[in-house]
Amino acid sequence: MLTTPLFTRLAGALVAALLAMSGLVLATAAPAFACRCDSADIEKQSNRADAVFVAEVGDVVEVGKQFEYALTVTEVFKGSVERDTVVVSHQQATACGLGKLRPGTEYVFLVTGDAPPYAADSCGGSGPVSAKRLAEVETVLGPAEAVPAPEPPAPTMTKVEDASPPSVSRLAAPGGAAVIIGLLGLVVVGRRARR
């Protein structure tokens, strides 16, 4: 028969062994869920991409398990991209997503797809604009083509109403009334001052 101190030590050792094994399982399972990218340089990433461009992030919206980024494109290195476009990416970095990008920041996007919404991920080479990243992309693809802002619409004259303009006497009446009231006020003040 087991004595109480011996039983307590065995139970403690069993619990410690179980905790250690569960920690080992968790520790070995975690990397399996991490994003794994094939090692690729910017040349391979640029060649795989259907379009490569620089854009400023506008609105960021959650759509299912993805983020949808509304972008304003300023420069295009590869492909044909409209000034206003959309890119989607997985929300989770563990799924190789770009995560929630900060509005107002500029990114270099290496995307796949023929039309918006384009797809991007962290393995494809997309990331924040830096002098180094721009130089690497330019070395592979050549200089970027600037995407000009759209021309503002031409002004148009619209007739508000078919009525003719008011007469001069109608426009002058309020001013004339103000002058008469002012003169009457001066007369009243002058009479009171004499008393």
UniProtKB/TrEMBL annotation:
Residues 1-27 form the signal peptide. Residues 145-168 are annotated as: Disordered. The chain crosses the membrane at residues 171-189. Keywords: Membrane, Signal, Transmembrane, Transmembrane helix. It comes from the Bacteria. This is Tissue inhibitor of metalloproteinase. It comes from Nocardioides piscis.
